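Example 981, ligand iron/sulfur cluster.
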Amino acid sequence: MPKITVDGQTIECKDKQMIIQACADAGIEVPHYCYHPGLSIVASCRICLAEVEGVPKLVPTCQTPVRDGMVVHLNSTKSIANQKQVMEYLLVNHPLDCPVCDQAGECNLQDYSYQFGRSESRFEEAKQKKPKKDVGLHVLLYNDRCIMCTRCVRFTREVAGTSELFVDGRGSKEEIEIFPGKPLNNKLSGNVVDLCPVGALLDKDFLFKQRVWFLKSAPSISPADAGGENIWVHHNEGVVYRLKPRYNEQLNKWWISDDTRYSHKVVNDPKRLYGAMRTQYGSQVESNYDDAIQQADTDLKRIHKENGDASLCAVLSPMMASEEAYLLGKYIRSIDPAALLVIGPVPMAAEDEVFRHYVSGQETFRIQAEKVPNKNGVTRVIDLLGGAKQTWDEFSQQHPTKLKAAWVVGGYLSHWTGLDAPAPLKKLYKVVQDILPSHLTHHADILLPSATWVEKDGSWENYQNMSQAFVAAFPPRDGAMREGNVYAKLLGRRTYDVAHVRQEMGEPFTSIKVPTISEADEPAMEFVEI
Amino acid sequence: MAFTEPVLTKRIPLDASQRKLIGYDDYVATGGYKSLKQALEMPPADIIKTVTDSGLRGRGGAGFSAGQKWSFIPKEKKGPHYLCVNADESEPGTFKDRYLIDHDPHLLLEGIAIACLATQCDIAYIFIRGEYHYSAKVLEHALKEAYAHGIFGGDGVLGSGKKVECYVHRGAGAYICGEETGLLEALEGKRGWPRNKPPFPAIAGAFARPTVINNVETLMCVPHILERGPAWFKTMGTPSSPGPKLFGMSGHVNNPGVYEDELGITLDYAINKLAGGMKGGAYKASVCGGISMGILGTNQLDIKLDFDDVRFRGGCLGLGTAGMIVMNEHTDMVKALRNCVRFYAHESCGQCTPCREGSNWMRKILDRILDGDGKAADLQMLMELEKTMGIMPGTTICGLADGTAWATRTFINKFYDEFALRCPEAPTKTIPLKVSSGRLNVLTPMGSNTR
Ligand SMILES: Cc1cc2nc3c(=O)[nH]c(=O)nc-3n(C[C@H](O)[C@H](O)[C@H](O)COP(=O)(O)O)c2cc1C
Ligand code: SF4
Ligand code: SF4
Ligand code: FES
């Protein structure tokens, strides 16, 4: 393994690694704009240049592979002079409208200005003005903030493979553009916003919603499909403002699909269910949450007593955390040892959506056709518990006359039951846990509003049987309760302790790694002493 | 050192009324395609050696040894090799390639065929500047003739089995497509954005295959070298810059045009003997080889026009294309530089931050100076910006930015008083040049940008 020296510090590198990446791996930051480990190298922004001993010119660290014994100076007079000059150049035509720019606070231009720039610009000519453009369903382009790193263009070619964005014009007149009538509407479009080092490409959904330094982050997993894309939930005071990709080498790399990106809509949906309900004399009335749980317990035990074994069933939603599914199964079997466990409906698209590099055709990203995050996990739990089980299709087609009551969990990101309550459930006594109102929740005997995935802890098993944990960003609002907490109460436990449940479930659940928030991941405002 | 008879222009009379397009038959009748037959008898390595021995240096600007460039092409063939002929001639002040193509296209085609044999190229592309409509037609016609006579295609060069295809590819009008890797990108159907090197074209050029890129004039020297030998070639020019050279004379001279002579003639000779002397006033300055090379000053008439003297004594980047724009005493140097910088700002491909932003910034400063609003700090600023760009300091991908730098540098250095006159000492607005961030302020080779 080659070793190089950077500003006096010796670091180990991988063979053929670029200097900038070797530095990044060793925790040394080299300023960069055009370089992105997930895209091809263009070495055009020129801010990453460094002095290398024995080379008369400055070399682009993003494009120069390491050589054993190389001595790199990021802090030499020449390197610094270049960093400052490039910073000054980039700001020549930049509008400096940070006060109204969404990127402010997480902008590489701001950060590097502070770290590597000069305190004032010597440019006193007129700035160039460039138009704002609506480039796609989710993305807005503020062209005059663009620093022409071409990351976005490379992304649409090399990852999305759809090549919507291109550079128009030449020299300082050039602009990022779309072709007429061909907007940036591919299902990975939101990634260009993350990639853009400045505030040129902005997410319409997040536009002017929140200053980023107020946001807190929680590591999480995409609920949109079985892909298990890793994400950050960015939230503040109980509101999720946006989801951002969290790097995962094996799964989503640096990217997420737009399905994932906008899946948080459900969390702050004004239609969400809050407040438990009970049916009295044929109509739903509001109830104290604990009383409703108690009532459900009493009713189910009574029904089992009256009708004997196999009269109860539980519909375990593939949106549930595996740990919750396990507890619900335990609970229902504790009353009725022959209770049927059904896995809820698994919505499927016709096929996976595959994205390919525009030239090589190599697969770069895949959006799973299975539109729920935890079919595999819930299936595993059902198998773990043993006993009677059915898929949703099997369940919908048969009408076992013995069945008298069902505990049904929803939690889907949008309505899942159609207009009518699902047929097999119609005649049964129903306890329903869900987040959005539907025919089913309307006809529930007991309705227990539940929590979305950002409001709870748990794990999901993706299409590759990889179990991944997600962490609660904040607790559910009053009137909603985590499913796990409900089951803990019913099972007479003090709390819903995920780690404890995983121990109980055994492998592979015990070895799930829980992601943590490192300081670097936390978008925090640095206070500058004046 | 002796230049006794025209070489590249031997079929092009000096008297314009006598000139005509040399067709295939005329070309062969005057000894054309003889060298090609000779080349077919030689192993490729021998052709390369002959060209290397002749000391032929590229006529496209950089002056790199042609034979050496060819020798970088891998000897083991693992797929196609390409030859790209650089006929994008867009350097201001340069019009020699057009002159050659318009009159004697078969000389180029013969040079191409020989170069392809030497470097085992299968396909040659002549990348011709978009605005050269007539020249492109001439080449197309000549190619048709050459194909009909078995030079290209068919059963290989003159039936030898070594097949070479040749195509004319027309540019779409951008200076940057003359830069060799910009040319390759454009040829591949992409934006003409120069590539980062390495990899060099000799290893991964057009379509990621080994590729030779040569200027039109360079290739046109090759048949003559083969025919008459390296020793003969070296009787012309200087030891380090042998051979004949076309000089494109324009500007304030009595007889502007393309003249052939040997390398190493003095600027004085070029102006007064070749181009008929100054017009409208005494000599003041001359662009020495396309504006990218910079400018030769008033007291530099004795500079020898070869690849070295212009550089070492002349203070320019090099001889470039030897396209001289001669200026008389009435020329406004500030305006002239503004024109040059406007050209670079307009032609910058826009990839590299220093070139894209810097050239336009410099243009704006010069515009302001010309508007009568110049100040002392402006010149300092221009000189500082100029130093931040180019492949020489390593801050850009291609040499276009070096052109911006060298034009600016030489204009201001050599005509400082003229610039200073427009930038009165009392500045209209003050810009402090020192860095006021409280960090260490050391003047560096790149100006005051230090922390
Ligand atoms: C900005 C720029 C423009 C150039 N334009 C031309 C051109 O129009 N014609 C040309 O022959 N070489 C041009 N060159 C030089 C080529 O990059 C290359 O050096 C040349 O074609 C090599 O041929 P030679 O070795 O035969 O000189 C240009 C270089 C730069 C940096
Ligand atoms: S829009 Fe953003 S990502 Fe795209 S080139 Fe401009 S700065 Fe780079
Ligand atoms: S130096 Fe200028 S012209 Fe050359 S690649 Fe960079 S931006 Fe383009
Ligand atoms: S990061 Fe290296 S040149 Fe842009």
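Summary: The two ends of chain A are 45 Å apart (CA to CA).
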